[in-house]
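[Automated response] Your request has been received and processed.

Submitted sequence:
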Amino acid sequence: MRTRSILLILCLPLLMAGCLKDINPSDALNTGLLTGTEQGLQQAVNGAYALFKDHVTFNGTEDLNNMYLRQYFQLSDFASDDIVCAQTTTDPLYYSFSLDHTATQTNTRFFWYISYKIINDANTVIESAEKIANPSDKIRQLIGECYFLRAFCHFNLVRLFARPVTQDPNGMGIILRTSTSDEALKARATVSEVYAAVIADAEKGAELMNQPRGVQFGSKEAAWALLSRAFLYKEDNDSAIFYADKVIGSNRFSLETAATYPQLFANAMTGKETIFCTAFTPADDYGKGGSIASMIYSDGNSGWGEEYASQSLRDTMAEHPEDVRWQYIVPLKNTDGSLQKKNGIEIYYISKFSFQGGSPTLSSPILFRLAEMYLNKAEAAAKKGNTNDALDNVDMIRKNRGLENALYNHVLPAGKTALDVVLKERRIELAFEGHRNYDVYRNKRSMNRTYWGYHLPGLKESDINLAVKPAGYNNMIIAPDAKRIIYYIPIDEIQTNKLCEQNP
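Generated structure:
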């Protein structure tokens, strides 16, 4: 599969290179466009946030499917065992389901491009603002937000395009862009170097941000949350706990209860758990044409609704039907109450990105929230051998999700480790929020995708109506060292930057 993809790269028409200048991230802000005033800097920073949700022209075309957050969630979750694909599609999201990646797929190319565009804007603001003598606290806040945005984008790039730091810290990471004067031709930093840069930027951002502007903007606590996540991935467990405790101890956030949790994602901007989200308004409701919800939910008219909560995830949750987290998994039923199917796959829509203001295709996606901090602490404690602490933090989540009668109370299930318990809870709690892939592979575990769906190799239409579906699908238990758990560096970078080496 990898060999075939490389051949596709080598066979691309040379005329494509003539268009590459049109997708250079350096076409964004420059210091000459900024006045150095508080108002000018704030407008520039707000523009960087807008790039997370805007449809930006890429390679001369504006495609409604090209949006940072759409790719952020799809590239992660559609390759996991939480979401099942119900049919083939020409949308490049299918490469995530099949794991049959290429360097030319549009979604990874756009994600790479828009990430570096945000990074470039952050660098431009930082360099302009840091020339100001005696900056005000508001300007320091804006500078800090840019350090946070740069850290966040570099971190997401290294998660998608490089192997987990726990597998190969000295392996190839991504290209670090920390200055507008960086050479265009630049080699990939190691994974460890990328993590060091992310941590340094997040720490710097946290130091500077003391004038919070709302959960739709970076904050001290958002930077701490990013640090907790990054240190957890590194298995620096003490630091992961330290920064999670700083978020929790800020007293700015509290866990939603069983009564309020079902409304959290439709009301992210005012949610008690929300640390950082991207604010969408009714004007940003892309409907069927490119919203995050369009592929995983439909009211019959609102979206395509072609991907569903997987049998694997539902089996994991099946023990507790009283769990309020089921409310984000919506079965589509016939008038007689029977469950509808598509191509033999049971239809369970996913509504975590729906119903802001009542719209089935509108939400303000949450990127950091308080529940993750408790789960970060739980995982770190489990790895430190502190089983009781791990279970206490898991129980903090469960008692707020309708499971007051199913707490662990320091007792592990038979045959399970503390880490098993934590990873199961992370899967259920953080489902569809872009975590599952990384939680599995960074812990050097395999992902079992042997359930019915169009991610399966060799699927035939004749298989659909079989009473008993084929089992033991080849290549669908994905080992953590499999090459296809990460994506190719996009062809645009490889063709224009000869110092950038491709993933094997």
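Summary generated for your ticket: The radius of gyration is 22 Å. DSSP finds 15 helices and ten strands in the chain.
If you did not submit this request, please reply to this message.
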